Amino acid sequence: MRIALALLLAGATLLCGCASLAPATCPAGLSPGRTAQLFFGRDIGDQVGVSDADFARFVDEELTPRFPDGLTILDAAGQWRGADGVVGREPSKVVVLALPGRTGGEDKLDAVRRAYETRFSQEAVLVTVQPVCMGF
Fold first, then answer.
1. Is 25 within a domain?
2. Is the pLDDT of residue 16 over 70?
3. Using CA atoms, how far apart are residues 127 and 59, in angstroms rounded to an integer?
4. Which domain holds residue 79?
5. In a domain, 43, yes or no
6. What is the distance between the alpha carbons of residues 23 and 56, in angstroms, rounded to a whole number?
7. Percent of the chain scored above 70 by pLDDT?
8. pLDDT tens, residue by residue, 41-85
9. What is the CATH number of the domain that holds 88?
10. Is residue 92 in a domain?
11. Structural domain tally of the chain?
12. pTM of the predicted model, to two decimals?
């Protein structure tokens, strides 16, 4: 159930075409863009989980090559209710990316999700994308 919900939300976000949600105009000095957030659970079944070193290596090998302009990593505590009604909790990482322009990068986000799911035997990685006005 958790994977279905995560994939539904991620797919809906990517298919909606964030450009239609973007502000019509941005204040002076700011440009239309998007932020993407990726939510990475760190539990691996009964194993110890994804260590800080494992996650850093993943960032170096998968995230940074696809998004070399920068990103922010936050520690988080994830929670969800599974299909059995039991609330599950796990340590998590949230990666925030600033994406210039109204479109593009969805293929890179999807590649990062799939790489994490495969490498760490995860059911899903949640991705959200939101329109913003941004400036550096």
1. no
2. no
3. 16
4. 2-16+30-134
5. yes
6. 34
7. 79
8. 998 766 678 999 999 999 999 999 999 999 999 999 998 777 788
9. 3.30.70.120
10. yes
11. 1
12. 0.78
